[in-house]
Amino acid sequence: MSLSDRLSLRGLASLWVVLAMVAGGAAVWLWMASDAAWRAHLDRAYVAGLALADGLDNGSPLPDGLALIQLDAAPGLPPGWRQTVLTLTGGGRPDLARGARLSLRIQSPDILYPAAGVESFGGGSQATGLASVTRLLARFCSDPRLFVQQDSGPWMRIDGAAVWGCDAAPPDRRLWAGALALGALALLLGWVAGISGAFTDFARALGDHRARNAALPVGGVAELRQTAQAVNAYVAQDRAALENRALVLSGVSHDLGTPATRLRLRCAMIGDADLRARLERDIDQMTVMIDGVLTYTRAEIGAEPFRDLSLTSLAEAVVADYQDVGLPVSLRAAAARPTRAGTLFSRQTSRPAARTTAEPHAMLMRGQPTALRRALSNLIDNALKYGREAVVMSDADADEVWITVTDRGSVLTGDDLARLTGAFQRGENAGAATGVGLGLAIVSTIAAQHGGRLEFHRRSEGVEARLILSRRWA
């Protein structure tokens, strides 16, 4: 178990705030210490340049790390090297120069030093100009050679590697300071993204249609684990309540079977035919009501496993059952929808060939076969109850499949159709037809468990009920 799984969100936030402050403080200290060391290094080089100017003018001793080597001739430029040539004067302008001119040549194997870095170039004192040159040499890591000449005197090489060489420069830790700050920021943002992603995954899993039948993943910070455990416990209790309800109703239905059978036998011995018929009708209605409530509860549970099936084959089987008993139920094939499709090598100006969609038997999906048979049977029963016949048709596209059941002669309105999807609702023209008003409610529940919906459309010949299902819902 990782650290984020063992600590709470408050503890992790406190820990990361402290670590961020420590990393930020360390980065600032490294940056400031390195910057101060570099300032001191450049200041030492500047002071060494002032002392060098004084030694050239007055012959005073040179500071430690500097040495003068007199040359017999003007210095030559080695092949591939770069040279910066400067002339320092003692006045504000060359025509107002005071003292001897100081000619400088800076030779480097890899750097052409910028003349703009010499603060007194073209004016000011020679001492500050030479100090600016030595400070400029100390700023860059290289192995330069500095040559000076006073007026027309001999050229001299100044050996100052101990002052402005690479080995004399302090280590620059500012890059490490920036890397430390960026690394701490990246870790903090990564932790925030990880925590946010865990909550996002939990929300996605909670919104998944399978969350009611599967336990949510328990992980992450303590608060998220507690939330997942609480939701899992709630879902388990809700499912247990539904299962207990179905168990009780199943037990009641089974227990009432024996008294109902005795009542039917006793009704058969009643001489009054009218009274006997009314009693038998009441017994039938009671039995149908209990079976309907039990079916509705089982549909809410949705415990049947999903499997691959052919919707067209299922519709054919259900319609055949009704036709076997002589009921006016027929199956209509879906109309072929022509599409245009061309080949990869056909010209755009040519007319692509027409083709039809896949055969009806190719309407495959994942679903609960028993629940779908019950839903289709309820739609057909509803069409026969409120109309004179039922016409069944199935169709599909890439994402959904649907079954339509159209009746003949139904006078139901849009408000009636919307109301009938509720539990224990019946149409006004149901008459003496059996039922308790749970048929369409069961269909709507089964449709939702398959990622679909139940729709009604008014047609010229009657009412069309459309059961729309997702092809890959589970």
Automatic annotation (TrEMBL):
InterPro entries linked to this entry: 2C_sensor_his_kinase (IPR050980), HATPase_C_sf (IPR036890), HATPase_dom (IPR003594), His_kinase_dom (IPR005467), HisK_dim/P_dom (IPR003661), HisK_dim/P_sf (IPR036097)
Topology of the protein relative to the lipid bilayer: Multi-pass membrane protein
Statement: the UniProt record of this protein carries the keyword Ribosomal protein: no
UniProt entry keywords in alphabetical sequence: Cell membrane, Kinase, Membrane, Phosphoprotein, Transferase, Transmembrane, Transmembrane helix, Two-component regulatory system
Residue intervals of the Histidine kinase domain: 251-473
Primary localisation category: membrane
Reactions catalysed: ATP + protein L-histidine = ADP + protein N-phospho-L-histidine
MF (Gene Ontology): kinase activity
Keyword rRNA processing: no
EC number: 2.7.13.3
Localization terms from the record: Cell membrane
Enzyme class: transferase
PROSITE patterns in the cross-refs: HIS_KIN (PS50109)
TM regions (residue ranges): 12-32, 175-200
Identification of the protein by name: histidine kinase
